[in-house]
Amino acid sequence: MKGIPINEIDGMENKNVIDSRDSATIRFGYYLKDCFKADYNYSVEVVQDDDGFHVLLRDTVTDTEEVVTIISLSDEVGKQIEDAYSDNQAVFEVDAVEQPPVFDGVYNRFLFSDYPFFNDITAGNIWYFRDNSEAVNAQKVLKLFWRMKDILMSAGVDEKYFKLS
After folding, report:
1. The predicted structure's pLDDT at residue 141
2. DSSP state string for the chain
3. d(CA 164, CA 31)
4. How far apart are CA 23 and CA 77, in angstroms?
5. CB-based contact 28:104 (threshold 8 Å)
6. What is the pLDDT of residue 37?
7. Which of 63, 111, 119, 128 has its CA 20 to 30 A from that of 88?
8. Is the dihedral of CA 164, 45, 4, 72 positive or negative?
9. Residues 6 or more apart from 148 whose CB is under 8 A from it?
């Protein structure tokens, strides 16, 4: 199974090589955070286990309340996720994305995991680079993010989980 074991996510740094396998692994994660709140506003994680691929959706309702929804994905969607990684291996070469000239208090965190590679990228206001081809690293991240977004939205995930700002 490809991915990073769920229990190893915290404390991971960019470009870690995964040296162990677990029964449940995060294959993709996206987290939108307002720097003025303690928790992430929304998050989406694609988890793979022995039963296949699943999506965990988190909505922060209040500082102490969170709603979690789990959606099982078809084998076809799992194959699309695998193909997305095959086509976008350059994301594992990214150490950091470019810094935008504007900061409005939004953080974007991306987890990309394709055994044996893993990348945990945090960016401030990555939305600024959506049309900027000169921001090479941001474009690598956004290209795979948009591909995952399209795959997951076609599987029924609401667009709100993919807001960049």
Report:
1. 97
2. --SEEGGG-TT--TTEEP----SEEEEEEEEEEETTSSS-SEEEEEEEETTEEEEEEEEE-SSS-EEEEEEE--HHHHHHHHHHHHH-GGGGG-S-PPPPS---SEEEEEEEEETTEEEEEEEESGGGGTT-TT-HHHHHHHHHHHHHHHHHHHTT--GGGG---
3. 9
4. 19
5. no
6. 62
7. 128
8. negative
9. 28, 30, 46, 81, 84
Other CB atoms within a 10 A radius of the CB of residue 165 amount to 13
Q: Contact, 27 vs 48, CB < 8 A?
A: yes
- What gap in Å lies between CA 102 and CA 158, rounded to an integer? 28
Residue written as token pair 């929804």: 69
Please classify residue 24 by burial: count the beta carbons closer than 10 Å to its beta carbon, then call 0-12 exposed, 13-18 middle and 19+ buried.
middle
Binned average pLDDT, 10 residues per bin, the chain of 165 residues: 44 39 77 74 91 92 80 97 96 93 84 92 89 90 97 96 91
The tokens for 83 are 């193909």
Place of tokens 């990214």: 94
Token duo for residue 109: 């965190």
